[in-house]
Amino acid sequence: MLQTGDAVPPVLLVDERGAPVELSGLLDRPTVLYFYPKDDTPGCTAEACKFRDDYEDFTAAGAQVIGVSSDDAATHARFKERHRLPFRLFSDPGGAARAAFGIPKTLGILPGRATFVIVDGRIVYAFNAQFAPEQHVRRALAALRHPA
What we know:
Elements: E1 12-14, E2 20-22, E3 31-35, H1 42-53, H2 55-60, E4 64-69, H3 73-83, E5 88-91, H4 96-100, E6 114-119, E7 122-128, H5 133-145
Parallel strand pairs: 3-4, 4-5
Antiparallel strand pairs: 1-2, 3-6, 6-7
Helix pairs in contact: 1-5
């Protein structure tokens, strides 16, 4: 998995309209990029809602939040609406972005859960923990407030 100091790899994501978007084009400010397994599962919903609840703290720190899973745009739209998520969700069909970031599978089968704090195209914090979804939010916010 990519770590602190690594450059963000060139990856394509798919936006809510189904259009390809180069990740580098989204990184115009500090970014919390979090990869999660699947919309509407208990852990992923808890994580997304915690990012939602703390969203003002992220924007006050000058950062944006971006969520990524392999779910399609329509699934993301329903998930965003159902949980009133104020940040963008992108699709990673086929898992190419997840692979470029080196996110390991959990138990060899579940898509991994990882969060990266990115500043100026470089990773300043990386955290990987499948079964601690809300810790991703707390740790990312701490990394923004107290950069190493």
